[in-house]
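Posting this for the archive.
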Amino acid sequence: MQLCRFGVHGAGNRRGEGGKEETWVRASGTIMTSNPQTVEPSKTVVDAARIMTQEDAGVVHVTENGRLTGMVTDRDIAIRVVAEGKDPKSITVREVASTNLVTIDLEQDLDEALRSMAKRQVRRLPVVEEDGRLVGVVAQADVARQGDDTKTGQVVLEISE
């Protein structure tokens, strides 16, 4: 695994999951993966699953006109579609997406992101602009790779409780 090396402007590249090159940005102390893959709410669950497969990810963010409206995980698909015997070709992302999301903005620092993750017991925090546009995601794994080991360990424990 390679860690990102940040340049003078706070940006860098590294290989992510599945060997895909990712751009990382540190904005006011916040670490994020920029430009995450998204899906429209009108698309089918199969479409969302295909994006997850292509991106080697367990989550895809739902956006409408660039604004974050929800999130679908592989677990959501398993529980809300497959386990209930529904047809993933006819169920829309809108029907299974989680919409009560915890987000952060570009101005929040890493400590605030850590506290938010621990408090809400979430592993990913979408980063949104003031108008709700999705610009990136801070994941627990990002924090583990780039953050303070002691703080990271505490957050992992709190999220897992």
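Helices lie at 45-55, 74-82, 93-96, 110-120, 140-146, 149-160. Residues 1-16, 22-29 have pLDDT under 50 and may be disordered.
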